[in-house]
Request: fold
Amino acid sequence: MASETKFGVRRYRMYINGEFVESASGKYFPVTEPSTEEVMAEVPEANEKDVNRAVAAAKAAFDSGAWPQTTAQDRGRILFRIAERIRKEAAHLAELESRNSGKPIVEAEYDIADAATCFEYYGGMATKILGHVNPVPDNALSLSLREPIGVAAQIIPWNYPLLMAAWKLAPALAAGCTCVLKPAEQTPLTALELAGYFTDAGLPPGVVNIITGLGEECGAPLVKHPDVNKVAFTGSATVGKAIMKAAADTVKRVTLELGGKSPNIFFADADFESAIDGALFGVFINQGEVCSAGSRILVEKSIYPKFVEAMSAKAKTIRLGPPLERETKMGPLVSKDQFDRVRSYQELGKKEAKLAAGGGRAASMTRGYYVEPTIFYDVDNSARIAQEEIFGPVAAVIPFAGEAEALRIANATPYGLAAAVWSRDIFKALRMVKALRAGVVWVNHMQPTYVEAPWGGYKQSGFGRELGPWGIEEYLETKQVHINLNEQPIGWY
Ligand code: ADP
Ligand code: MG
Reply:
């Protein structure tokens, strides 16, 4: 899947119809290593022609060939073999992921293990797709069958590259769909490595196609393609809205996992030390490049000054460094664009609120897209730094007095992906759980995610659920079958 060019940069090919190929234009685009700002690889620049080729391969594989004949048991076995291979290659994949995305190696190792677990989970689920017998009142047998939707276009972001690929591919394949996956242009490498495992795992050609390209040139034609039956997207709200509109023309099924501005709510009766750690982990994990980042930190007034002070003191000790060093707790942001974006929010924050920690690029690092973990306090919830998704290590701390106000502030955002509540009063915590408008609510924790549990948002954070049994539902149609048991069919004429 990759060869060395004369400059020592790895040149990858993309994966269509079971083969590693160049793009139709023969063009490549560079992939940057964010800790060094240097080009680490080149990947094919796919355009509409490549999209057409990949979709044609996926459609042919869905309609004919080996895949429609592959039993649920065998689909499951293929997914188990992919999982096994991911585990075998985990060290290599984690290193590549860490270098390409900037995330600390220790976090990348968790992601790779989670990706394997996701293939295992849906490997098991392939044989648990059940239909129904419907209790209709006639002398008939009424059935509902579950069938794969068809060709799925899957567009993913750069923050959890291989894991997002797994969340998309595993349930689709378990359901019997075929896929065209487009990784984010910043981080396409681990998905292309994954493509190298498919043939050995027994996946027939065309069932999964992985094309690398930019949003406008490759993502947009993929979403519009008439032979695509379903679009699964994770990314920004802006692109999600455009995708929903583009999908309308041919009435594609759509699931969207978009941004968030998730509240992490701390009551005075929470365990203080765990609260500080939970606030930092909630917002700074993966450099804050997390859709569910706890970027609005709501703190009850009686502990507010002490909380801001303790959180800021600890934030200043977070170890920034090269992502491959095991002691590193925060790596660089993924790209120059993201660096500029986060830097501009740091400057905006200085006008909108008070700065308690960070606020600039990380002076300790001489190169790479590093920014300081940044904490603003006395933030008004209507400020832009409290309303707009920054997707970087920038926290907005907001004081509140009592449950009602906490709830009002927490829900006052167009998003509704996640929320967390910290309290030792279980009744108060549960009242909050019920009233928070978010698809995921943690109590006395923030961020742990499990393949067994549903993931997705309320409001403008999207719709549809990934993971668990919910995840496979999004790739299934329901067919009603009516079998008449009378000698004579019921008729009118
Ligand atoms: P970000 O701005 O943080 O890169 P995006 O939502 O733009 O987040 O990117 C998420 C994914 O969506 C990427 O794979 C990107 O290439 C893709 N994408 C961007 N623009 C479009 C578009 N107009 N149509 C389809 N996909 C797109
Ligand atoms: Mg974009």
